[in-house]
User: What shape does this take?
Amino acid sequence: MLPPLRALKAFEAVARLGSIGSAAKELHVTSAAISQQLKSLELFLEAKLFTRTPRGMVLTTKAQKYLPIVAGSLHHLSLQTEILFQSPRDEVLRLKVNHTFCYSWLMPRLADFMTQYPSIHLDISLVDWPSTIPCEQADIELTNGYVEAENVKIEKLFQEQWVLVASPEYKAKYASALDAGEFAGLPAIQVKGYEENWLQWLNHNHFSLALPKIQLEITNSMQAIQAAKCGLGMLLIRSLAVKESLNQQQVVLAHHAYMPTESAHYLITPKNDNAKINFFCNWLHEQVVKDGNDFNFSELNKC
Assistant: This one.
């Protein structure tokens, strides 16, 4: 048999706010009503939940263990109710996602989200750069870098490394120069728009600052990786973008030197979020924890 819902709500509010008066104000009832709900819950559970102190209501040991269960259940029930009974128009979740992040990380995992939340219709727009006004035309943005704004929350998801890759055939052809760290004049591919460049990477790793020969410049990372697979040159690329290709040995590390990226991938959401945004963000955080993946170079060296 479950405890009364009102009693659970009173317990969660008092535990979170630290006083019966604050909980009563939030729940729009009297302090006496809150006290009565707590008493009824303690009788139901046959356990003391709070100790009164000069600093407020303090949870007992058992109550400390019980609180996350109650809070999580109430939160989940609230979100499910909101999303299942809101208008169909509001079920569309608009995402702006960086091309590379979407292709390399998000898309392979989206089936799980769609299974858990079949009532949410995803509308994904792919972008190369962060919006100048974040979340103006999207509910959520997942971008490489961000633009500061007062009306949004910004959370770093992944920090990457700049790594040097090439096709196995390219590496075999230029093995001697690559092993020696002599990159001057070697055919290379460049992704347009990257602020961090070859000179920074060479300097970071204490190589000669003599540059390779950029024979192909291309719009985005996915196109550049495809060019590298075809043996058109070595490619300085972010670890997230190329990790799967490395795992499948479609490209290999041309050299084990690397450099941390200055920017990272970010989750950007409005400060005034709603159920569908919370559902997606909670799911995203679960995926990040499950993946246990910060895309660092030590992982790439295992490829």
